[in-house]
Amino acid sequence: MQEVVDAQRLDTELSAENAAYIEELYECYLTAPETVGDDWRAYFDQFPKGDQPHRNIKEQFLLLARNSTRVQPMPQSSVSTEHERRQVGVLQLIAAYRNRGHQKAKLDPLHLAKREQVPDLDLAAHGLSRSDLDTVFQTGNLAIGKVETTLGEMVDAMEAIYCGSIGSEYMHIVDTKEKRWIQQRLEGARGQFNFSNEQKTAILERLTAAEGLEKYLGSRYVGAKRFGLEGGESFIPMINEIIQRSGKAGTKEVVIGMAHRGRLNMLVNILGKNPADLFGEFEGKTFNKKGSGDVKYHQGFSSNVMTPGGEIHLALAFNPSHLEIVGPVVEGSVRARQVRRQDIGGDDVLPIIVHGDAAFAGQGVVMETFQMSQTRGYTVGGTMHVIINNQVGFTTSCPDDARSTEYCTDVAKMVQAPIFHVNGDDPEAVVFITQLALDFRQEFRKDVVIDLFCYRRRGHNEADEPSATQPLMYQVISKLPTTRTLYADKLIKEEVVNRSDADNMIESYRSALEAGKHVANALVREPNKKLYVDWSPYVGHQLVDRWDTGVAKERLQELGRKMAQFPEGFVLQKQVQKVIDDRLKMQTGELALNWGAAETLAYATLLDEGYLVRLTGQDVGRGTFSHRHAKLLNQTDGSQYIPLCHIKENQPRFALYDSLLSEEAVLAFEYGYATTIPSSLIVWEAQFGDFANGAQVVIDQFISSGETKWERLCGLTLLLPHGYEGQGPEHSSARLERFLQLCAEENMQVCTPTTPAQIFHVLRRQVVRPTRKPLVIMSPKSLLRHKLATSTLDELANGRFDTVIDEVDNLDKTAVKRVVLCGGKVYYDLLEKRREEELDDVAIVRIEQLYPYPQARVREVLSQYPNLERVMWAQEEPQNQGAWLFIAHLIYSDVASLRPDQLIPVNYAGRPASAAPASGSPYLHAKQQATLVIDALGLDSTNKPDQQGES
After folding, report:
1. Could you tell me which residues come within 8 angstroms of residue 644 by beta carbon, excluding any fewer than 6 positions away?
2. What is the pTM of this model?
3. Which of 82, 137, 287, 649 has minimal CB crowding within 10 Å?
């Protein structure tokens, strides 16, 4: 009874100022209940134990915080003696070192970074003094292997653990189990890394390789750009340790993304690129069989290396100069590899992303990638993030101008990733924290960050003079011994190696370089090709427009019925139930097929034939315009059912994920995924096509140019809702003109399908044809339910994708004098007006594939109109946008080829040139739409806007 009374008294007498003390005391109680007083133990006994033991007590702390203006005494029974009062101070000091010790850590090899004094680490801040250093106190849950010891020993241990060459940030993590794990590993070591002589020698050998390559390139190719690793050489033993240790744990593949700094060093010393090949690139030789190629520090590479756990495949992702954009591409590639291995947990495939400090803090895609990391559709079981922290961004000084946060890594706290800062001039600390960080990732399947504090011995590149912008920094650097020199001297002093051995390492490495030998220390010369993704069936094919994509009608009906079956008791929302009921009627011919039915049948047939299908975007389950309904929700309990996951037994994976509200990172992820699993249909759908401009860097740097720069095939499909419905500038245009401007060398396909059968066949063609090229589809909005935009099952069964669709009405072709060419939704506006006016001398022809432009087919269609007098191009977009500027010269050429001796005019019908994609006024939109239709058909144009252009 007395214990209950004490607990109640504690509940009412505590003040918020003691919250940190209470939390630390509670930690002690959880790990060693006997170390806290009886009254506190009774108080804490009230709270249930579980995975989140702090949840309830933190609610108490919040209650205390509301009363923080009241200064109240500590419970007398808990601090009844002066010694007990000081014991409280000791526990507070331990908490302070864990929270703020990193701010005192010796991280900067240059000793230039300003480190403010940390008052919380002073003894006096916790009611202690130097006279207490010899006093024995309980250690609480400080994991140094003792229940009690002197305050002096505790301070020495915590200084070594938290204020040496490693600065650890992990107290922001909510999960107590994760925090305790880190504490045990850090505090158990007490700042002593205890590597064997063999391990130390191996670290020196890798440092020698890192430094040796840079010195060799610097002397042989003076002034050539290489974005050298000088100043950050510890990066090489770090990456080597990650690979070897992960391989020992059973990892089969490691995928690495990194920008320029240190990339050549990584290629040669880790992945095993032959130095002779690298030297050839410096000397201007090219190894590209076709395309533009790319500079040497953008190219990808892959190899196999041997680890204690067996052979492991390494893949260094290609990347552009857009720094951090490679991160989500790597994540997508890793996810695809994990799916191929049935390893979503992340045991078999490990991602490593290497960042620059300024880019990590400055690029928004870093935040987007972190935000994806624990979501269902994008998790990869944790990523190893390594920051090569040069402490300068190009020429921008850090941190004053480069960021607003204390560290460049602060963005990682948003996902409660542990962050380990480490001094790059202490290679043993680097390797130790690398081991800890990797083990954390393997244990908890979460992202982890290593911030390698180093410097840049040269400028941004080797042609720069860095002292012009950072004079004081480079005065220090010019006098600083290299990391390898410092560590060699240390090992010689410890008698691990002698001077002769250390010097021989340098000579033997240089000799290997000069002989053109591989210098990666674990390269497998005859790799196991089963670890690779086999792209050979998709290489060397030309794009073929017409491909057999039909599916037997009976199978289509069977699949359609299958997708209308649900678990017993599954209750659909009323409108959704009607959609499903209508689709059943479409299988019998009672109703014509609409867009949603044809699209989902395309996915079903591909799954039925053994192809993986992945569909992501911000509203793909339902479809932004409520047409797809591939994911269904039970109205009684909220459970979901995806019929496409139940086409048949042992079917391929159908992945359907409503994505986070990101375009750039998500599209980059899907690109990486599509470049890794060729036998698949990977689709990203924009909520509105206009929003794709938020991912323009992915479109420019990867989708449009990846094949010609890096010989990297990709079959990614983009569904971009596009069409002028009077919804204003931000909800009309998917910027068709931008995609067409990027088209060349058959690098991608741009299509504007107008019927359900066309979307069925173009999606199927993307996979069943052996070519792998990106496909950009200008998806409709109003056509999803347009009364004329329908198809039959026979058109799905017996048809194929038509790049050009000729006039569908039964016109006398000899009577036709005007042909209107168009693409997309405007076709139906033209068709309805033509029928309304009963024009029998105007034919409307749809160009459904704008690129590759189907010239032969266009000419074949036009040649069927012998009395043609005028050709029009009609579009909804303004004259300076849409397809007109891309297609005009092609149409001129086609028309000129019909009758070389007769000039047939080619004219434009559409909106006038405009800075914005569309009008925000529904009235003006309707007026412009009516006018362009009238112009295209050659009707009386009275009262039309007078700014229409004509060519």
Report:
1. 563, 600, 603, 604, 607, 613, 630, 654, 656
2. 0.90
3. 649
